[in-house]
Design goal:
Number of strands: 0
Number of helices: 4
Oligomer: single chain
Distance between the termini: 24 Å
Helix content: over 70%
Largest sheet: none
Order of helices and strands: HHHH
Length: about 130
Amino acid sequence: MDKKIYSTAALLGMIAIILGAFGAHALKALLTPEQLATFETGVRYQMYHALFLLLIGNIASLSEKAKKQIYTLSLSGVILFSGSIYLLATNSLTPFDFKIIGFVTPIGGLLLIFSWIRFFTSFFNKKS
């Protein structure tokens, strides 16, 4: 499981760096400052959770079950939260109206919160 967590964290981090640079350079002339700020929010949360997954992979005291649950919640949350934010922020650049998928953003946010809750509660299940 740790190898999967590390490779996913590395991939999410790499994509966050690429999208951050893309937003700062290529999208700067195409999006409003508000749209750019929204896009950057998606990048920031993606990077936070790439680093979070690195942390999860490094904690030996976490059970494999807890790691798997946190991994699944975090990855799903990043895909729904950051992914929908990227699409919504760049909505003006495409003929498709991504506002219809806007409802998935808070679902993704909840999954990210639940991943942190699961991390927090995993320490109460341990015997000292």
